[in-house]
Amino acid sequence: MCPTAQLLFDNYASDTMTFFEATDLLVTFVGQHGPFEEERKYAEQARQKCNAAHQALEQHWARHRCRDI
Fold it and tell me: How many domains does the chain have?
């Protein structure tokens, strides 16, 4: 695999796990308005970062055409 694609994939995988963990933790704050809202904001930021990492990987594959090598 292309080293840049591997790095982008690793970033995406890491960001996906962070997003998963943030959403998993979110359920523990249901009913606690302040803490829930803070965790919801963190989860939303994690989702956006995950989406950006996925987009960067897809764009690299499209430009570099290294996905199927």
Answer: 1
